[in-house]
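Hi Y.,

Following your request, here is the sequence exactly as I used it, all 359 residues.
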Amino acid sequence: MIPSRAFVHAPLAQRVVFGADSLSRVGAELDAMGARRVLVLCTPGQRVLGERVAAAIGPRAAGLHAEARMHVPVPVAEAATARVAELGADALLAAGGGSTIGLAKAMALSTDLPILALPTTYSGSENTSIWGLTEGGAKTTGRDPRALPKVVVYDPSLTLDLPVGISAVSGLNAIAHAVEVLYAPDGTPVTALMAEEGIRALAAALPALMDAPRDPGARSEALYGAWLCGTVLGQATMGLHHKLCHALGGGFDLPHAETHSVILPHAAAFNAPAAPAAMARIARALDAEDAPGGLWSLARRLGAPPSLAALGMREEDLPRAVRLATASPYANPRPVTEEGIAALLARALAGDAPLTGPP
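Below is the corresponding structure, written out as tokens. Let me know if you'd prefer a different format.
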């Protein structure tokens, strides 16, 4: 007997422009948005990119703010928001990765300005209404329609010079989004199809980039996979993996994408007994025998950091990390306990291979 289906699918309204030389279309997209004075955002390290983008949109550029920071500290968001009033900006253009797009989202919450995102990494933040702010050693997250970029322009040529190390961990970060969607309580047949395809695309493209970092085909395929993975995260509930990464990033200032790459196989192993159908899809997308092992092997093949210790976390940090990770837990297929999370984090700290345990 074929089981009946029941689900609610509510895709987010967003315009996506994808393809080589799409940077040349940004001006027209801003015009369609009605944007006339655009504040361009980037990190200090991507000032050259920010200047290039500002030049590309010409007189529409009201200014450049190259002060985005990882995890969006509240003072950074407040300073950037002050620039909006100073310049009379009517739209935000976020050029870069998750840090820059995250800053734009935080600014949109208090200004209601529309966002055009020009992603240059594979984080997928541009496809969600999820925002995050860090203050006092804790990261607060939420969802708000104002935080969803109205337009996303993907130009694979802007990613050709993305270092392979950043490419690897950013891509694993994107895969983590799709993994969680596959066992989310509000996942749908559409998000499942997109999540599996996103994992497949990235698992194929990322190793190719290790051998040929400027291969435009591989860069395009990786960006395509990132779009799929980010899009499905915007339509489903986050689980244990993201809770752990938010706790570790906000609580210990660990690097965002690298933390995702370390935690991913361990969170999958923790949830594997309670989410067999999701794990089967992940393993199929990775062409692996099992999902946690396949994720671990992919991360090792890509040269991603092997442990939380490699990111600067210490053994004495574990008790606080467990408390942060188990406070206000996200929806998850397997119950979250302090004992279970302590064991998971201990293995992640040491760099041990993931261990699947009883539900």
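The two ends are 28 Å apart (CA to CA).

Thanks again,
Q.
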